[in-house]
Automatic annotation (TrEMBL):
Pfam families: Aminotran_3
Family note: Belongs to the class-III pyridoxal-phosphate-dependent aminotransferase family.
SUPFAM superfamilies in alphabetical order: PLP-dependent transferases
GO cellular component terms listed in the entry, alphabetical order: mitochondrion
Keywords assigned by UniProt, alphabetized: Pyridoxal phosphate
Species classification: Eukaryota, Viridiplantae, Chlorophyta, core chlorophytes, Trebouxiophyceae
UniProt GO MF annotations: lyase activity; pyridoxal phosphate binding; transaminase activity
Naturally occurring in which organism (per UniProt): Micractinium conductrix
Domain of life: Eukaryota
Protein name listed in UniProt: Ethanolamine-phosphate phospho-lyase
Length: 463
């Protein structure tokens, strides 16, 4: 019909004029979404889809209060941060109030990538200033399978990319800590991992200037760090002179329910916190928060910091509205309650399908389901469940983790109990359909083994 023709035309234009390696969700049957509200998306025919994965539309798609705040600012003034305007200081002060001391100085950027890139410049400046006589090159550490952004530096510290399809491999100044795997009981000691990275950095003639990590590993597969993991790790890193950067681009702003920032669950205070995605509810804004001492170290070189759109007048207007909505709609509390409900329902499902749901883990509305076969990653099975949820239930899920075998649930924070039940029902039905079709299931299991072997080969070659 007409809708299919319109979709084909959009796809055709995209194929001809948009970068070919820009990915689409559901590559073979992409969705044409035209509207969003709360945790729901609507296609061109008005068909609703339940969005279980968009952690950017943090307070709900197109939240009217946020949209109105941005629109009002755009119709009055939107310029760079070089004129006095109350919003920037107000937003920075509100962020500082939400963070533990001594984190209190804010730099605004446009994307999470830029925030992490800037964090590296800050860390490098601090390292050089701390010991100007030390001529060793500056090295950096990160956690395996992490993604920190798309700038050149961020790709260098994103094993998810440099060991992924088309990846160029690890560079010599980058040291990768193994990803803790609580489910399989591997690499649980943060202190030991830090010591090993520091030792390899020093053995190769460098000094570590920074350690980057998310406080819950999202691309790594929704990995909840073992208790005390970052505390020991940070202590070792700091003793070696490295600045500790917490990437809260995905897990910040109340998503984890029990805390406003995920690093708080680990009982640590980072030297730099980078943030992005959720802070603007879809408006492009991001940044970092650091201590007065670190900021002064960065500034002392004399170079100005300026980003045309970082902290532009509309950004703090948007960011302040997002913070208001989080508070007024008690979205952090909702994340805790609905997240706990998801975990309980999913664990009940796991008890019914123990051979294919290996692990259910999460904090608040940051939940992962590890799809397995005999405890081995089962990417083909995970992909089939995702596709079934979309086709039969219009529930949008996604996969991540080193083998793309972890189903992720990171919906807008207004996700309701009823919507959580809808998501669980889609998965339950998908698992039941699988069990009812042994030949389909056998074919998927065969594909799992091939996909896992291919990933392992690539990781061994590029790590
Ligand atoms: N850090 C993390 C943890 C992310 O998930 C992302 C984006 N997926 C980034 C950084 C980069 O953010 P952006 O895409 O806004 O540059």
């Amino acid at each position: 019909g007409a809708a299919e023709a319109a979709k084909a035309e959009i796809l055709d234009k995209r194929r001809r004029h948009v970068g070919p390696n820009l990915a689409l969700f559901f590559q073979d049957e992409p969705l044409h979404i035209v509207e969003g509200r709360g945790a729901e998306l609507f296609d061109a025919q008005g068909t609703p889809y339940l969005d279980c994965i968009n952690n950017v539309s943090h307070v709900g798609h197109c939240h009217p209060r946020v949209a109105a705040a941005v629109a009002a600012q755009l119709t009055r003034l939107n310029t760079n941060s070089r004129y006095l305007h109350a919003g920037l200081g107000d937003y920075a002060a509100e962020l500082a109030a939400l963070l533990p001391a001594p984190l209190e100085v804010v730099y605004m950027t446009v994307s999470g990538s830029e925030a992490n890139d800037l964090a590296w410049r800050v860390a490098a400046a601090v390292a050089r200033r701390a010991d100007p006589g030390d001529a060793r090159p500056l090295h950096v550490a990160c956690v395996d399978h992490a993604y920190h952004g798309h700038t050149s530096f961020c790709i260098e510290i994103s094993p998810y990319k440099f060991k992924g399809p088309g990846g160029g491999g690890r560079l010599a100044h980058v040291h990768v800590l193994p990803c803790p795997d609580v489910y399989r009981g591997q690499n649980l000691d943060g202190r030991a991992a830090a010591r090993a990275a520091i030792a390899t950095a020093e053995a190769s003639g460098g000094r570590l200037a920074a350690f980057f990590s998310e406080s819950i590993l999202s691309c790594g597969g929704q990995v909840i760090l073992p208790e005390g993991y970052l505390a020991g790790l940070y202590a070792e890193m700091r003793a070696a002179g490295a600045v500790c950067v917490a990437d809260e681009v995905q897990c910040g702003f109340g998503r984890v329910g029990r805390a406003f920032w995920a690093f708080e669950l680990q009982g640590v205070v980072p030297d730099i916190v980078t943030f992005g995605k959720p802070c603007g509810n879809g408006f492009p804004m991001a940044g970092l928060v650091t201590t007065r001492a670190v900021a002064d170290g960065f500034a002392s070189g004399g170079m100005e910091f300026f980003a045309t759109f970082g902290g532009c007048t509309a950004a703090p207007a948007c960011g302040l509205a997002v913070l208001d909505v989080i508070r007024e709609e008690r979205l952090q509390q909702n994340a805790a309650a609905v997240g706990a409900h998801c975990l309980a329902r999913l664990r009940a499902l796991q008890a019914q399908h123990p051979s294919h749901i290996g692990d259910v883990r999460g904090e608040g509305l940051m939940v992962g389901i590890e799809v397995v076969t005999d405890r081995d990653p089962a990417p083909a099975l995970a992909a089939a469940l995702k596709l079934h949820a979309k086709r039969a239930h219009r529930v949008l899920l996604s996969t991540e983790g080193p083998y793309s075998s972890v189903l992720k649930i990171k919906p807008p924070m207004c996700f309701s109990i009823a919507q959580a039940d809808q998501m669980v029902a889609a998965l339950a039905d998908g698992l039941a359909a699988l069990e009812a079709s042994p030949t389909h299931k056998a074919a998927l299991l065969e594909r799992n083994a091939a996909e896992v072997a291919a990933v392992r080969e690539r990781h061994a070659r590029l790590g």
